[in-house]
Amino acid sequence: MKIGFIGLGNMGAPMAANLVAAGHDVTGYDTVAAPEGMTMAASAAEAAQGADVVITMLPNGTILRAVAEEVIHAMHPGAVLLDCSTVDVDSARAVAAQAADREIQALDAPVSGGIGGAAAGTLTFMVGGTRDALAAASPLLDEMGGRTVYCGPSGNGQAAKICNNMILGATMSVTCEAFALADKLGLDRQAMYDVASTSSGQSWSLTTYCPAPGVGPEAPSDNDYKPGFAADLMLKDLALAAQAAEAADAATPLGTEALRQYRMFVEDEDGAGRDFSAMLPRYATKGRA
Ligand code: NAD
Question: Where are the active-site residues found (predicted)?
Answer without folding.
Answer: 161
